[in-house]
Specification:
With 229 residues, this protein is α/β, with parallel strands linked by helices. The chain has helices spanning 16-21, 31-34, 39-47, 61-66, 73-89, 106-116, 140-148, 185-197, 212-228; strands spanning 2-3, 26-29, 54-58, 93-98, 125-130, 152-155, 168-173, 202-207.
């Protein structure tokens, strides 16, 4: 459990990543959505945290937004760079996030399947946040393709149901305000309750929004109190 990045952590420490790793054991790297980091920088991230610290990596928008995961050279180049970042960080999750305006007709789904099948290197799992206009569900054919390729569906446990199946739960948490306001105690308790009722083997919670560090800390406190009772 952690947050979407460490850059805005309120601390006087010179190294914010080190300070962050003393508070949380997991972080979702979001800068990789906007920029391709130097591999030397990525190696330094790994060196500055404990051995058991966990990273996930958000895929660059070249693959998801510019090329829509179509099987073209730029998509494969972008994905390969992201997989290399995962390897250097010893991260086992690459997070895909596609925009709400992206269409998923049969031709598009087949094209995406061509891109993703047999692509993921050993030790890295895809987790996909399929953003949709409010009230519109993920097409059944897309859902089936994700299941066939063992791709975990990313959900926001404050606004969406738990996935019906799968051994991995990945939740990007924005809350009912969309990240504008702190999570209420009720929202934190709801997230904990839903997570406790799931049967997944692994769960990743990435808090996002203006108060994500405080929200993640609230969840940590609730978890600590509940497990000590």
């Amino acid at each position: 459990m952690g947050t979407g990045g460490w850059a805005y952590l309120p601390t006087d420490a010179e190294d914010k990543l080190k300070a962050y790793s003393r508070l949380f054991s997991f972080v979702e790297v979001n800068t990789t959505f906007y920029h391709y980091p130097r591999f030397s920088t990525v190696r330094s991230w790994r060196r500055r945290v404990p051995k058991d610290f966990t990273f996930s990596v958000k895929c660059h928008r070249d693959a998801t937004h510019v090329n829509g995961l179509r099987p073209v050279e730029q998509t494969f180049q972008s994905l390969e760079r992201m997989f290399q970042v995962c390897r250097l960080l010893r991260s086992d999750i690459l997070v895909l996030q596609t925009p709400a305006w992206m269409t998923f007709d049969d031709e598009a789904i087949e094209s995406i399947g061509t891109t993703l099948q047999n692509l993921t290197p050993p030790g890295v799992r895809l987790a996909w946040e399929v953003r949709r206009p409010r009230g519109r569900a993920i097409p059944a054919k897309l859902h089936d393709m994700m299941a066939d390729l063992n791709i975990a569906r990313v959900v926001d446990l404050t606004r969406e149901d738990l996935p019906e199946s799968g051994d991995l739960l990945y939740s990007r948490l924005f809350g009912r305000s969309g990240g504008l306001n702190p999570f209420s105690n009720g929202e934190i308790e709801e997230i904990y309750g839903r997570l406790s009722s799931s049967r997944v083997r692994r769960a990743y919670l990435a808090f996002h929004g203006a108060k994500m560090y405080e929200d993640a800390d609230k969840f940590n406190m609730l978890k600590h109190i509940s497990t000590s009772l």
